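Input/output pair, single chain:
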Amino acid sequence: MGLLSYRTAGESHGKALLALVEGMPAGVDVDQEFIDNELRRRQGGYGRGGRQKIETDHVEFLSGVRLGKSIASPIAMLIPNKDSRLDDVKATPPLHRPRPGHADLAGSIKWLTTDCRETLERASARETAARVAAGALSRCLLKAFGIEVFGFVRSVGPAMSDVRVMSDNWRKLLEAREQSDLYCPDVAASEEMRGFVNQMKQDKDTAGGIVEAHVFGCPVGLGSCMTWDGRLDSRIAAAVVGIQAFKGVEIGLGFETTRRAGSKVHDEIAFDANSQQTPTLGFIRATNNAGGLEGGMTNGQPVVVRGAMKPISTLGKPLRSVDLNTKQTSEAGWERSDISAISAASVVMENVIAFEIARAFLEKFGGDSLHEVRQNYDQFLATARSLPLG
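Output:
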């Protein structure tokens, strides 16, 4: 089978978005309800704009799925756009005044045009709906092997939650997250975040923040230390900063490691024979400062990733810019937008990380069918438990 991969197509106000996933083995239960729910979550969150009241995102499978299961052929998913008006010049007029912080200026010069519309339609974060669909599909595979992902909003502006996520409490935190319109499991922090978003709305400004994702149940050995592009941490980091408006990523302690002595950073290793049958193979840690990744490979501990999203570029009180036709100073253009999309961003990050985990999982245990993948996975764990080999 080929490597798991995906591509997306579509513009913000085009007819639809498309996600094409290749390399999914046959026999995976495709949970369309789960995928559609992830798309709905991406549309939600406090601070979203009017576009989300128009769209009701859902996937339509065009290929690769039969009777609710993958059949190994490429899986094409279509997400219709209700707000489809790209060919209507009155509804989507040219934009000649690039917004600072957006792709407008760089894209217009790159493609030799003064109309930013042709760049912004594809650069728009509307495209992330297709990535969420691809990631949610990959989670149908991961679920078959007990691998689950939990994402939430850690901070908005200066308001930050200090909630601690552990293997034994994340499901309760998930329930709390589902009750929060900020997608934050911390009630007090959610109130502070909401207050900051309200202030930004009043100021005609925008808000960014930090989102966090934890992956539970990963076996040891996903990824590789043999090549730079085989390292799972580098691939996860690329997937995260590839999300529109993301400017930073941390794994585990991240930048905090630079402020500590080595003895306070690295996670000591112990062995517990009673947990040998788990994916950790009995190797346990009292801490997880590495965020589940050492040497570019999973070490059996939960994978922990944080991403930093900057405030959205379209402001109700536009910054200064230049008209690309006249070269005269002007206010930046305006497009319908959000005050804060940090909640939605947490859903996107959760799902792009899931896809990278699934890709690495199939590289390690791949087969043409789920049954074959299962055999490879079980055989690996059995062999690893019997080390040293006789």
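Residues 58 and 90 are 28 Å apart (CA to CA). The two ends are 32 Å apart (CA to CA).
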